[in-house]
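Input record (one chain):
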Amino acid sequence: MELSNFLKYERSLHPGKAVFFYKTPESDFIPLEADITRIRGQKAGFTEGFNISFEPKNVAPQDLAHCNPITIEECYVPPNVEHIYCRFSLRVQANSLTPNACNNDDVIVLLRLLSKQFNACGGYKELATRYCKNLMLGTWLWRNQNSGDTHILIKTSLGNTYQVENTRQLAWESRWNDNDLKTLEQLSIELSNALTDPKIYWSADITAKISTSFCQEIFPSQVFNMKADKVDVTKNFSKVKCLDGRYAVSFNSVKIGAALQLIDDWWGDSKRLRVHEYGADKENNIARRMPNTALNFYSIFINAEHYLEELNQLDAHDFQAINPDIYYLFAVLIKGGMFQKKAEVKKGE
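The corresponding structure, as predicted from the sequence alone:
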């Protein structure tokens, strides 16, 4: 299949911002606020004492003992508060069944057939199960997972309620108990149906209740400040303005989406990556699905006809026999994006 000059998929997972708050006997929602703190930053970086050739710089002993005053935001649990809550909403749409925009009718027909057969073999159910695992494990809490016991409550638009008593008793690879497996199965069926039926409007409300220690530090999303920005505070948190004018620290929606998409272990190792066209591994600052390999999204995508033939030879709901490349392909389509090729501009034009 030729890569079209114009091809777009709308994302299927639409998380909202995740807001941090706590409760008191008088109120069920008190925003968790950030504090502005001035600290003395230490001169301890490599470039403070050495040049790029690893030669010591000509600095006085006093120069490296001086501090750089900086202003940052910090966030801590208020005294005598034992639980912090983090809540967000998730909307799911069946946008991967067909391109949102494409200038090639043959490609549209092929991609629709591919998604139809992928669904018939149970492929969407497997992807939905992986997204639900991240919901139930509290992966979206990021560094705040390393806290006390965490209870997760999930309410869906179908009127169903699902609970995880303690995420610390679960792990992606571990054997789950019967109650949690049942919850995972039922929740993944709902999400899978939303991914495969355009007539369904499905959403979920997810809340984590985190047990905390005295004045424990909380880690919301940080706002990226361009160097050109003239800001007094060098580290800012993402926030949501509440009705009373106060600002609750939060995770931005992209941070939540990134956690839900931590499902790519099809690239050749057990390590799960965030779904990405080139398999970006942020921890190690390397791409695991390089363009010069057959692992990247575009190299897999142009073989859609071959994968359709593979799926046609499988029995219905035979998801265990589906080629891992096909799972990865649809995970990227669910993520959404612009996948067309652009004509190269020749020099002088």
